[in-house]
Amino acid sequence: MPIQLIVTHPGGAHKDEFLACCLLAHLHGVSIQRREPTDNDLIDPTICVVDVGGSHDPQLNNFDHHHFSRDAPPQCALSLVLLNLGVYEDALSFCAWLRPAEWLDTLGPNEASKLMGIPRSALSELNSPIDVTLLNRFASHTELTPDAVLYQVMCMVGEDILHYLHALRSRLDFLKHHCQWWSIDSKDPGTPPIRALFLEQCDEIAADPSFGLYAFIAAEDQQEHVHALIYPDRRGDGYGLTTYEDCPRLNFSLIESEDDVRFAHKRGFVAKVETTEPIRLKELVALAVVN
To answer: Do the bridges between strand 32-34 and strand 5-8 make them parallel or antiparallel, or are there none, so unpaired?
Structure first.
């Protein structure tokens, strides 16, 4: 049964219902009304009721969290829509912004800032004018139809979130079968080996070779064990060499004088090389080890 309408609360707008409506607008292309829902809205499965109404019932497309108990997981309206779409766990794992958005909406700014490990003032300091404008414009409407500019922007946001999650899941499955873990000995025999994640050149990933590598490392629970990434350079036939999370054991500016090094950043965190031979790639990483 196709969705006919999206209803969310009037008044001030917040990121959670805004993004939830972005997803639903992209998927269904129907008008959004900002008002209190009626009893008929809540029992009509063709109407999505978001962040209002006191009901969480995916079969009826009701996505409100405000009636949850204090000790319930900190899930907001966006969480409930993502759950219904079957992408919540991936979003929680790979969208770093989701958990803070949940905390902020369900626990408030003081508790959210504590959980994020930042001062309360940092929430305001990091607030983007893009967020402010979109939420204020959203709040100013009682109804948004698909021909409205803001509605079309919302569809873009929803599309990009879902495209990212679906593309990332596909890429992680690909990386599982195509990545190699290299152990590279340094020139100093007393120094532990460098562990590098290597991805071989392939037409399937040519447009964005590095996409998903950090998420793959997290999915494999290898954050504490990897020092470098080696992946195809999308601007040429060689490879990019980068430190993982600014690993202090490597400084790629040390190899800038090598004949097959096209570019090495002065700060040492990345280099672009012409070679495609695994033996030579390992040599270059070994030369970049800080003694």
So the answer is: parallel
> Facing residues of 186 across strands?
none
Query: Judging by beta carbons within 10 Å of its beta carbon (0-12, 13-18, 19+), is residue 153 exposed, middle or buried?
Result: middle
pLDDT at residue 190, as a whole number: 80
For residue range 236-283, list pLDDT tens digits in order.
Answer: 889 999 999 999 999 999 999 999 999 999 999 999 999 999 999 999
List the 261-264 sheet strands across, edge first.
179-184, 194-199, 228-232, 239-243, 270-273, 261-264
What one-letter code names the amino acid at 97? W
Please name the helix (run of DSSP H) or strand (run of DSSP E) that holds residue 160, with its range, or none.
helix 149-178
Ramachandran region, residue 285 (left: φ > 0; alpha: ψ -120 to 50; beta: rest): alpha
Residue whose pair of structure tokens reads 């790629």 in the numeric block: 252
pTM: 0.86
Round to whole Å and give the CA distance between 48 and 111: 30
Whether residue 187 has pLDDT greater than 90? no
Residues 80 and 58: their CA atoms lie apart, in Å, by: 8
- Token couple for 260: 């097959």
Integer Cα distance of 220 and 3 in angstroms: 38
- Tens of pLDDT, residue by residue over 23-77, are 999 999 999 999 999 999 999 999 999 999 999 999 999 999 999 998 999 999 9
Domain ranges of the chain: 5-146, 178-287
Q: Three-state DSSP class for 260? A: coil
Between the alpha carbon of residue 98 and those of residues 75, 188, 247, 276, the distances in Å are: 10, 43, 26, 38
3-state secondary structure at position 72 = coil
